[in-house]
């Protein structure tokens, strides 16, 4: 039967290559897209300041999109070779602070180390900056809690944000509350606008 006479078979044959071409184009576009996976407990703290757990190879494409200048690592372990190599290739400076977690009754984060890390975190010349520890919960949570105090957040809001990532930890909550903000050396010329 003729397509003009309403048989329709010619239309089907004419349109099949178009559908095949569209399917091939979609498959090609999907294959060329790079899957981006943020690190564990990733979040934006403020413009240019990010927090997370320890990134791994699956997170490299995501981290590239942040255009990081600096990474601040809070942990007692040596920096993982894969991350050190990634940072070197990307031209990212890494500051490693060997900070213990707060654990009652005997272990407490070193306030001088935290104040020194905060000096890097609160210097916009280092932005964009990622602050991370192993899981992105406790050490980073304390540092972010202190940033929130410097921003003038209420104690309740600070603890709610901390709990969202780490649950309740009395030792960390106390550390955030009693940390002496005067220890933090902030250069007014280079502090972020949001502080």
TrEMBL record:
Protein name: Protein-tyrosine-phosphatase
Top-rank taxon: Eukaryota
Domain Tyrosine-protein phosphatase: 41-195
Subcellular location(s) of the protein: Cytoplasm
InterPro entries, per the entry: PFA-DSPs (IPR020428), Prot-tyrosine_phosphatase-like (IPR029021), Siw14-like (IPR004861), TYR_PHOSPHATASE_DUAL_dom (IPR020422)
SUPFAM superfamilies to which the protein is assigned, alphabetical: (Phosphotyrosine protein) phosphatases II (SSF52799)
Enzyme Commission designation: 3.1.3.48
UniProt main location, coarse: cytoplasm
Signal sequence, start to end: none
Keywords from the UniProt entry: Cytoplasm, Hydrolase
PROSITE patterns reported for this sequence: TYR_PHOSPHATASE_DUAL (PS50054)
One GO location term (cellular component): cytoplasm
GO molecular function: inositol diphosphate tetrakisphosphate diphosphatase activity; protein tyrosine phosphatase activity
């Amino acid at each position: 039967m003729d397509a003009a006479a309403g048989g329709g078979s010619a239309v089907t044959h004419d349109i099949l290559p178009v559908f095949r071409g569209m399917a091939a184009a979609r498959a090609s576009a999907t294959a060329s897209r790079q899957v981006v996976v943020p690190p564990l407990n990733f979040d934006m703290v403020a413009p240019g300041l990010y927090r997370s757990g320890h990134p791994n190879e699956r997170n490299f494409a995501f981290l590239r999109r942040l255009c990081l200048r600096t990474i601040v690592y809070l942990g007692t372990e040596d920096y993982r070779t894969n991350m050190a190599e990634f940072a070197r290739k990307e031209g990212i400076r890494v500051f490693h602070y060997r900070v213990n977690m707060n654990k009652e009754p005997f272990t407490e984060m070193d306030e001088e180390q935290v104040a020194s890390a905060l000096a890097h975190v609160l210097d916009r010349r280092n932005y964009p900056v990622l602050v991370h520890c192993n899981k992105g919960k406790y050490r980073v949570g304390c540092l972010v809690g202190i940033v929130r105090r410097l921003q003038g957040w209420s104690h309740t809001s600070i603890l709610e944000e901390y709990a969202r990532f780490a649950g309740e930890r009395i030792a960390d909550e106390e550390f955030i509350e009693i940390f002496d903000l005067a220890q933090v050396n902030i250069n007014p010329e280079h502090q972020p606008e949001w502080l």
